Amino acid sequence: MVLVDPKKIYQLAEEKNYAIPAANFINQEMLSSYIEVAEELNKPLIIAFAEAHSQYITMEEAALLGKYYAMKTKVPIILHLDHGQSIDSVKKAIELGFTSVMIDASDKKLEENIKITREVVNYAHDRGIFVEAELGHVGSGNVIGIECSEGSDKTIYTSVDEAYKFVKNTNVDSLAISIGTSHGTYLGTPKISIERLKEIDLEVDVPLVLHGGSSSGDKNLNDCANNGIRKINIYTDFLVAAHEGAQKNSTNYYELKDNIKKAIKEKLKHYYEVFETKEVD
After folding, report:
1. What is each CA distance from 234 to 74, 125, 182, 200, in whole angstroms?
2. By 3-state DSSP, what share of the chain in percent is helix, strand and coil, each rounded to 5?
3. Which of 2, 33, 75, 98 has the most beta carbons within 10 angstroms of its beta carbon?
4. pLDDT at res. 193
5. Minimal CA–CA distance to 115: which of 174, 176, 166?
6. pLDDT in tens, 1-60
7. Where are the alpha helices (DSSP H) in the chain?
8. What is the pLDDT of residues 132-169, one digit of tens each?
9. Global pTM value
C-alpha cells in the first residue's frame, strides 16, 4: 500500500472516537518495529520524523525509509514531518514525499503564527498535503532526544477563543493543542485539562493533536482519545523501552537487537490499546 490520504484516516478516527499513535523514529530498527506491530494488529499508524532529530537521521533518509516501508505494508500509513521549524523545511519535506507536515510556529505571537501557518497551508494544499500546526505551547520536561526548540520549557495552555480564530484564519487540517503535557518524561503524572480539551473540541472542526504523550499516564491519554484527540505523539517512551530492552541478557549483537525491537513493539501495542485505535476495515 502506498502512503494514504491523512484526511481519510483522521475521519475514521473521528467517526469511531479513537486516537492514532504518531511514532517518531530515528533509525530503521525503530521504524520497522512500528510497522510490524501495525501489520500484526491491522491498525493505522503515523510514522513521524522530527526535524530536530536530523543529527540521527536526515530528512532525506527518513523520507526514503518511510516510503519504502509504507509500500511493503497493507495497513494505512501516514508519513509525517514533526515540528517543522521553518517554511523552507516544510517545503523540502513535501518535495521529498511526506504526506503530512507540521509547521511549528507556536513560540510566535498569535498573528505571526497565523501568518506563517497560512503560508504553509496554501503551499501544501496546492500539492494535496495535510498540514498540522500548534497553538499554545507544549514545553519540555526531562527530555531524551528533545523535539522542541531551545528555551521552550514553559508550557502555555491553548486558549479556546484563539483556537477558533487560528483554525478559521489558517484553514489548517489539524491542530496540536497544549492542555498540560510536556515533551520528554515527568517526575510524576501530569495534570491534563480534559475540560479545556472538550471546550476546544466544541469550537473547532478539525482533528486535535496531543504532543508529549510519553509518560503522561494511561488514563490521561485514554481520556484524551475519548474526548477529541485524534493523534498522540510518542517518542521518549520508545527510547526508554529500547534502553530497557538493551539491558536484558544477550550473548551477541543479534539477540541485543531482537531485545530492543521486542521492547519497542510491546510499547506500541500498549499504546494502541490505551488510544483504543480500531482495526482497519
Report:
1. 23, 26, 11, 22
2. 45, 15, 35
3. 98
4. 87
5. 166
6. 668 999 999 999 999 999 999 999 999 999 999 999 999 999 999 999 999 999 999 999
7. 6-16, 28-41, 59-72, 87-96, 110-125, 160-170, 194-203, 218-225, 236-246, 253-275
8. 999 986 665 544 443 434 344 456 789 999 999 999 99
9. 0.91
C-alpha to C-alpha distances, 149 to 4, 6, 55, 145, nearest whole angstrom: 29, 26, 14, 11
Which residues, listed in sequence order, are joined to residue 156 by a DSSP beta bridge? Answer: 137
**Which residues are CB-neighbours of 39 under 8 A, at least 6 positions away?**
73, 74, 75
Which residue matches cell numbers 520536561? 141
Please give the positions annotated as active site: 82
Cell 471546550 -> residue: 199
